[in-house]
Design a protein that fits this description.
Length: about 160
Amino acid sequence: MVTNMVLRMVGAMLLLGLAVSGQAQTPANDTKITLERWGCFGTCPAYTLSISGDGSVVYQGKAYVSSRGVHKGRVSQSNVQLLVQKFLDAKFFDMSDGGIVVDLPVRVLSFSVNGRQKQLREGCMCPPELVALEDDVDKTAQSEKWVRGRLKMFFHWPWHHS
C-alpha cells in the first residue's frame, strides 16, 4: 500500500516536471537568429533571413534570388526551440569568426537569446559546426521557396535533396 502511494507520488512529480519543462522550452522573447548571405563576384544569392522567438520569419531577397524584396513567413515555436538548442549545443557563443576570401560568398550569422548576443562573419575557413548552423537556419525558415523558387542552382544548398 505504501509502495503504491509512493509510486503514484513519484509519477505525479514526474508529470509535473514534464509540464514545467515543456513551458520552459518556449523560446525567450528576445530570441532572434539572423543569417545574411552576401553575393560573390559571380551569381551567388544575396539575402537576409531572420527568425524570432515567436516563430515569425522575415526574408529580404537582394540579388540572384527567385524572390526579391521583403517576404514574411512563420515557423512553429518548437522548431525555433530546436534551432536555439542547436546553437547552444554547437557552443556558438564560443566560436570565432572564419576567414574571408575575395570572390567567395560571405555569411554573417547572429544569435541572441536570454540577453546574450553574438555575430560571426565567415567566408570559407570556419568550423563545420558553423556551416551546419547556417544550413539549419535556412532549413528551419524554409527559405528555399524564396531563394530558389523553381530555379535549379548547381551548387550546395542546405535543402538540397539527394
